[in-house]
Amino acid sequence: MLAEETADRVLNIKRSFSSALELGANQGECSRSLSSNVMSYLVQTDSCPYVTYKADTPKFHVDKNAVDESQALPYKDNSFDLVISNLNLHWVNDLDKSCREILRVLKPDGAFVGAIWGNDSLYELRQSIQLAEMERRGGVVSPSGSSD
């Protein structure tokens, strides 16, 4: 599972974090794989307020917030030692702005660990959609939405 791999990347950083922010936490799949030896305070955010409240993360002191990650994050500058984003940033429209916000809330020696789909992700699905489009309309829909 990718959440566990993202957590492993955090564990590869040989230090502990006093405060962490998990963007797009969903039900805490990533932070569930971490121990209190890694972090002591965690803020979980998601655009849907309901899902973070279902998260089971008893190892940490956890605050849960509904946050629109495409907007300015509601945290002070240099607030977190660690920011985690596991398959969340592909949902935002302005990735540059979101990354600037992550850097803003990170402490100067903080770490950002994230996972995002790459260009060749879900290749088989894209290929299947292209074949279906060719059969239906005699053309292919490009990733930007215009016809080829």
Strand proportion, as a percent range, falls in: 25-35%
Tell me, briefly, the overall form.
elongated
How do the strands of the widest beta sheet line up side by side? 3-2-1-4-5
Q: Give start-end ranges of low-pLDDT stretches.
A: none
- Given the structure, what is the number of helices? 4
Distance between the termini: 36 Å
CATH topology name of the largest domain? Rossmann fold
The tally of structural domains comes to 2
The total count of strands amounts to 5
Decide which structural class fits the backbone.
alpha/beta
The percent of residues in helical segments reads 25-40%
Quickly give the CATH architecture of the largest domain. 3-Layer(aba) Sandwich
CATH superfamily of the largest domain: Vaccinia Virus protein VP39
Rg (C-alpha, Å): 18 Å
Return the CATH class of the largest domain. Alpha Beta
Order of helices and strands: HEEHEEHEH
Describe the model.
The protein is an alpha/beta fold and 148 residues long. It folds into two domains: 2-115, Rossmann fold; 119-148, no CATH class. Helices cover 28% and strands 26% of the residues. The protein is built from four helices and five strands; from the N terminus they run H-E-E-H-E-E-H-E-H. It has helices spanning 2-11, 49-53, 95-105, 123-137, and strands at residues 17-23, 39-46, 61-66, 80-86, 106-115. A five-stranded parallel beta sheet has the order 3-2-1-4-5. It is elongated, with a radius of gyration of 18 Å. The mean pLDDT is 80. GO terms for molecular function: S-adenosylmethionine-dependent methyltransferase activity. It holds the Pfam family Methyltransf_11. One of its GO terms (cellular component) is mitochondrion.
